[in-house]
Amino acid sequence: MAFNDLLKQVGGVGRFQLIQVTLVVLPLILMASHNTLQNFTAAIPPHHCRPPAHANLSEDGALEAWLPRDGQGRPESCLRFTSPHSGTEANSTEDTEPCTDGWIYDNSTFPSTIVSEWNLVCSHRALRQLAQSLFMVGVLLGAMVFGSLADRLGRRKVLILNYLQTAVSGTCAAYAPNFPVYCAFRLISGMSLASISLNCMTLNVEWMPIHTRAYVGTLIGYVYSLGQFLLAGLAYAVPHWRHLQLLVSAPFFAFFIYSWFFIESARWYSSSGRLDLTLKALQRVAQINGKQEEGAKLSMEVLRTSLQKELTMGKSQASAMELLRCPTLRRLFLCLSMLWFATSFAYYGLVMDLQNFGVSIYLIQVIFGAVDLPAKFVCFLIINSLGRRPAQMASLLLAGICILVNGVIPQDQTIVRTSLAVLGKGCLAASFNCIFLYTSELYPTVIRQTGLGMGSMMARVGSIVSPLVSMTAELYPTIPLFIYGAVPVVASAATALLPETLGQPLPDTVQDLKGRRRGKRRQQQQEQQKQMVPLRTSAQKNGL
């Protein structure tokens, strides 16, 4: 509790916390836009083959003479006749060939997307999913690299680098001359965005007193949901993919500039053994919060006494291998990995296929954002009253059940299926909200960012595997839903193996975790002994 007492001494939740939390959280609005940006920049417009260059449409009987029809009477997207047909011949698929002269796109809804610009359709349609998968690979790499780097260099330095990286790579993607260059810059953007998400949570949590951490986690979740609303509005107002890509990337230059004014986590300084910088950071915060007198009372001697544990145990930074080498950390890592993977796997299985809902893509984006508001509020109430563990288990379990039930609902029940999908998505959004806070509270300071990074890495594995599972729909249409639903249901059981963190101080070292477990066992033994005393007394009386 020593560091928590120091935070209260320099103002608790004061002017500094309000300003820094706001500035750190603000970029997350556009981070949400980047994560699902390809729903709009890679939307597939209606299209059909371009007739041969030698075709004379006025003599051949218009464009339709070159286009075979599918079972519903619509022009085939990937085939054309080798010679003009008319009448009932238009329904035949004989004498057809691929679209060797390219395609004609319906630009009424999407004037320009990467699909229409680089012809990512028909035999090249897998490249569209490749672009999103490479973005998620970047997120995975960013979680691995920058998570560990933030534990060694600090949260502030890594955030500054990530803002600049996102601004430059996102802007370059908007001006990409070809598809490979676009994918490369999207991958680099994914790396930095993963780190921004992790460091935002960590830097804010480490500057806040115990009783306010759930509020910070919920605020971050709501800001992310606000970003989904913003994306729908921006995509509707700016339908050209290059302009939209630039619009959600350029503001990161502003975030890069003001991030130089962030104050590094004093808790990280102390866990790194840098007591002089810890003192400077705390005194600066005290000055901003109007607690100059309290800040003046702090000194190197006071910090040595208050933070003796951090100085003696936290000088050496733990590596990622400690997550597997140390039994206490290994248990946390394996359980949390299951939760991260399941949440992301099911979440992106739902949100990255908006065009298949049969309604306006802009409308479904707004609905998916709107459901987050009540879902995260209910999750916040459970987190604050019952604890993190019940909230995590309930959100994953309910999400899985909604998706599984959706798999047995007939395809023509559009409203019911959409409602269940929206409810499941809301539960998964609440699960994301909880898992960020829960993970940051479970891992000790010396390895917190590395642990968050590894958790995010497992989430990205889930988001990469998710599109592959959707391909099983070719075998049977509802197979993906059964898989998307079963995984979170199974993973929810892992929360039973995790400790509760409601009202607990943040652990700084692995010894803190072991002490917490020993304390829990001691408390259970004391309760058992108390229960045994009346039984012994009753037995003695009966014996007498």
From TrEMBL:
PROSITE patterns: MFS (PS50850). The keyword Transmembrane applies. Its main location: membrane. It comes from the Eukaryota. Keywords: Membrane, Transmembrane, Transmembrane helix. InterPro entries: MFS_dom (IPR020846), MFS_sugar_transport-like (IPR005828), MFS_trans_sf (IPR036259), Orgcat_transp/SVOP (IPR004749). This is Solute carrier family 22 member 6. Belongs to the major facilitator (TC 2.A.1) superfamily. Organic cation transporter (TC 2.A.1.19) family. NCBIfam families: 2A0119. Residues 507-544 are annotated as: Disordered. The keyword Transmembrane helix applies. It comes from Marmota marmota marmota (Alpine marmot).
